[in-house]
Records
---
Amino acid sequence: MNRFFITVGYSGLAPVAPGTVGSLVALVAGVLLLLFAGTQTLFLATILATVAGIKMIDLYEAQSGTHDDKSIVIDELAGMWLALGIAPGVKISTESLLDLSSGHAIMILCAFGFFRLFDITKPSYIGRIDRNVKGGMGVMGDDLLAGVAAGICAAMLWQIWLWIAQGWGL
């Protein structure tokens, strides 16, 4: 059960780009949570996944003797969900998600893109957490900060989109 959880349904066992595959699985699950349960539930689920993830990663690292194994993608799930929770700013509905002119689908993809960018490149404090903090806190911490940064960047793009749309009468 621990391995299933920390690999997010074994998506972290993908032979190529397990972090991206895990992030895609998290994106789909996060959008479904937003559609059917709302932002508050997504944030609560993120907290639960984070706390459980830290504990399970600590157990896994103690048993395996490895730190931040590539197959561990529960950190991508928590970071992606945090980015999604920050980015929307409005209640997403099935109609708005499917209507590309509303910008919601584009914003969600931006949150995903920014999250992967920050998770892979690890700029500033994201990289510092990755290098200096050990155990489950280190594994989860850099992705949580990447999620916050991604959500803020996607929200800023959303505001720019609205500003442009209003100025052009779209």
---
Amino acid sequence: MSDEEKAIEMFVGGLLLDQNTEAPVVVLKDESDKVHLPIWIGMAEATSIASAIKQLNMGRPLTHDLMIAIFEEIGVVLQRILITDLKDSTYFSELVLSYGDKAMILDARPSDAIALAVRTQSPIFVAQKVLDKAQVAFDKESKAAKKKTADSGEKLPEEEESLEGINTANFKDIDKEQWSEILEDLDEEDFKYKM
């Protein structure tokens, strides 16, 4: 397996809001809790992911619920999802499906892929090259934030470097039980978006 084909399994570590843009962010983390990957997503996808994690009954099926129902009806199984690339601040992913003895790979937005994986308890993999690219992007942003802070005379606490408005200490230090508490405190009303 080449370096580009290597991937690690990750899990949904939680959902938060970017403090600057108020956009939802899904945070993936590895089993050791040492690697974290924040992915900015839309409110509809955040609602779908949160409702699946909390097993909320939304009254009517969301799009991802419908997709799973269709998969089940025709015998398609979601084997895993793979986040394959990061280009121009956009993540790319694939659904790896099986239908009998046939394997299928479909292009999908990571937010949709994650929403489906959470519902089916399918594994989520992230290509090592994505983590490498994300780290480079985050390092550049962190250095720019440090330089801006240094130029302004302000001081950033070492453990609380900002990443596009997200305090990285917030999700690095939150364990599974704390995420459960955060999600339990959410109300269905929190996820209804305004038209």
